[in-house]
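Same chain as my last thread, 329 residues:
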Amino acid sequence: MSFFTLRSRDSKQIETPPPPKITFVLSGGGPRGAMQVGALRALLEEGIRPDMVVGTSIGAINGAFLARFGYSPETIDRMIEVWDDAARGDFAPGDFIRAMLRTLLPGINSQSYLEQARDFYARHGITPELRFRDLEGPELYIIAADIHHHRRVIFGENPDDPVLDSMLASAAIPPWLPPIKMADGLMVDGGAVSDLPIEPALRHGATEIIALDLFHPLPPEQPVKGLTSLLDRVFTTMENRHIELELQLAELMDVPVHRWKLYYDQRIPFWDLSHTHNLIHHGYELTKEYLTQMANRLETERPDPENDAPMPNSWTERLEAILHRIRAD
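reply #2:
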C-alpha cells in the first residue's frame, strides 16, 4: 500500500498485496547503539534478514555497515571491531565544556572531530566516494534534520547521495560533530525529527517492521533538578511523541511494527564507550528474549490444522524455524 493512498472504507480492496519488505528500523541512542549490534547478531542467527534498513544517528551508522558489507556474521564481527576501535579513539571528550572549547578553538587540535570521523570510517570501509547506488546489502535510508529548511531529510532516495556524509549528518550532535552542509541544507542529528524512523520506512514500502529502539527515558518518579534535568525531560517528551505518532501511522496503514526496547540498567554519557561489550551482549540477550516471546505467542495463535487458511504473513513463516529450535532445546 502506497504511503499516499491510505485506503478508506469505501474504496476497493487491493487484489495483489505488495511484495514482502521486512524492514529493520534502527533508532538513535549514542553509545547504546552497541546493543543494536548484539540484536542484529541474534536476528541473523535465527535467519531473520531485512530487505530494507532505515536508521537515525547511531542507527544510521550501524545500518550503513549492514548495507555496505551485507548482513552476515562477518559483517557483525566487523561492526564489533569498529566499536572497539572507536572506544580507543578521542571522538568525544569526557565533558561538554572540553568539546565546546575544542570546537571554538581549533588550534588546540589541528584536526576537527568531523575530519577525524571521516578518516575513521574511511579506514573501516565507508569511504568518501561510496554512494548509495554502490551498496550491495539491504536497501538503506538514512534520516537527518535540515535546520536550514526546518525539515526531515531521507538520504538514499537519491542513489548518488554520499553514504559517509549522510551517516555523519544523521549523527551530527554539536559540539562533538558540527552541522554538515549538504546540497542546499544544513544537517544535524536525525533524532531531532525522527529518532525511531518508522514513517520513512512506511514511505518506502515496509510491510513489516522490526524496530530496535534505544529510547531510554528517565523514570517518572525521578525528580527534576536543575536546567539540565529539565531540558532532558522536555526533549524526551518530544521524542516520545514523535515515536507515538509514527507508531499510530503504521497501525493506520496496517503494517505490523515489532518495537523491541533495548534498555540498559544505567544512563551512559554520550562520550562513554567503555560499556561496549556489555551492551552488545545485553542487546543480544534481550533480542533472544523478544524472539522467544514472539514464537510462544505465535504458537498460541496458530490456526486450526483442519482449517485451510494460509498463515497470516511472511513474518510468521520465518518464525516457524525458531519455534522448532526452541522446542528442540
